Amino acid sequence: MRPSGRHLSEMRLISIETDVTRHAEGSCMIRCGDTHVLCTASLEPRVPPFLKGSGQGWVTAEYGMLPRATHTRGRREAKNGQSGRTQEIQRLIGRSLRAAIDRNALGERQITIDCDVIQADGGTRCASITGGWVALRLAVNKLLKAGDIVTDPLTDHVAAVSCGLYAGQQVLDLDYPEDSEAGVDGNFILTGSGRLIEVQMSGEGSTFSRDQMNGLTDLAEKGVAELVAAQKAAI
């Protein structure tokens, strides 16, 4: 039995509330169980130096956790003092979202996705990617409505979910009690059409077989399908 009482293939309750901030071009609050992340998208009329004059746009991300997002207070991270974990997660978010955008259609502008974890109970990077896509979608919609771009640069949905081996069982959407004790932990990022963008898997307390990995991938596909449905309903 899972600590939460959920079935092995059952997701946590998902909710996505849009337009939660006044100034950002796109924003949402995504809640996956007790993990809550505020995602905002900001349009900027600039690109990184390596893209100047190319006509291509860029999507990047920043990630952070508020001091009491977890059981004990964490220290605030300054821009130049980010932990390796924070840097790795925000790069993952950026890579994931860029996988489903036509940067030529976006034009020479940048969209920055900020993901701020208000409350953490496992799966914060996955929630950030899923909510970050919604914020990105809303920002792109404003560009289209204003006529600043004529072709939709977003080619597909992007969502992410965790899967792993807990107490020897393959489980979907790990919360913190499961994540902290999982023998194998994995994060799966997929498009709405089921194409894999990135998979992060590690044996933290045990090894795993190819068959087990295939089973976890099947669970991830089910979970992402539910997340994409939530994204569509929110937008």
TrEMBL record:
Pfam family, one: RNase_PH_C
Domain of life: Bacteria
Keyword Nucleotidyltransferase belongs to the record: yes
EC number per UniProt: 2.7.7.56
Keywords tagged on the record: Nucleotidyltransferase, RNA-binding, rRNA processing, Transferase, tRNA processing, tRNA-binding
InterPro entries, alphabetized: ExoRNase_PH_dom1, ExoRNase_PH_dom2, ExoRNase_PH_dom2_sf, PNPase/RNase_PH_dom_sf, Ribosomal_Su5_D2-typ_SF, RNase_PH, RNase_PH_bac-type, RNase_PH_CS
Described function: Phosphorolytic 3'-5' exoribonuclease that plays an important role in tRNA 3'-end maturation. Removes nucleotide residues following the 3'-CCA terminus of tRNAs; can also add nucleotides to the ends of RNA molecules by using nucleoside diphosphates as substrates, but this may not be physiologically important. Probably plays a role in initiation of 16S rRNA degradation (leading to ribosome degradation) during starvation.
Entry similarity comment: Belongs to the RNase PH family.
NCBIfam families reported for this sequence: RNasePH (TIGR01966)
UniProt subunit comment: Homohexameric ring arranged as a trimer of dimers.
Protein name stated in the entry: Ribonuclease PH
Organism: Palleronia abyssalis
Record lineage: Bacteria, Pseudomonadati, Pseudomonadota, Alphaproteobacteria, Rhodobacterales
